[in-house]
Amino acid sequence: MTAMEFLPVLFMVAGVTLVAGVTLFVSSLLRPSNPYPAKNMPYECGMDAAGEAAGGRFRVPFFILAILLVVFDVEAMFLFPWAVVLKEIGLVGYVEMFVFMLLLLVGFAYAWLKGALEWEA
């Protein structure tokens, strides 16, 4: 592959970046700016924030669950390109993907046994 083949991708990235930047700049000029203390307070379902969430602190299980979600989303992203090129990569690629999935399954079982998937109220 040559560098010229990536030129359309470069133009698209530059265009998207330019449109995003111009949109943010124009919206910062047009929007009203009127901050006041009541507006800057945390808002939670129509009630004043109370407890740990009032200070912006969240419990660790929330973050563990979020990280697990990201890990398994990345696994799903790897499955699609693998399925597209399955005929070209042959048996070696097939076995490698199942080893990858087995490692993720072991991690999932470990998280489950440690109680990372349990959400306590």
Helix content: 55-70%
* Uncertain ranges: none
Supply the number of helical segments.
Answer: 3
Tell me what portion of residues adopts beta-strand conformation: under 5%
User: Order of strands across the widest beta sheet?
Assistant: 1-2
Instruction: Give me the CATH fold name of the domain at 60-120.
Output: Methane Monooxygenase Hydroxylase, Chain G, domain 1
CATH class value of the domain at 60-120? Mainly Alpha
Could you say which structural class the secondary elements and strand pairing correspond to?
A: mainly alpha
Tell me the distance between the termini.
Answer: 54 Å
CATH superfamily of the domain at 60-120: NADH:ubiquinone/plastoquinone oxidoreductase, chain 3
Looking at the overall shape, the CATH architecture of the domain at 60-120 is Up-down Bundle
In oligomeric terms, what are we looking at?
A: single chain
The biggest sheet, with number of strands, parallel, antiparallel or mixed sense and barrel status, is: 2 strands, antiparallel
Mean pLDDT: 82
Shape: flat
Order of helices and strands: HEEHH
From the alpha carbons, calculate the radius of gyration and give it in angstroms: 23 Å
Number of strands: 2
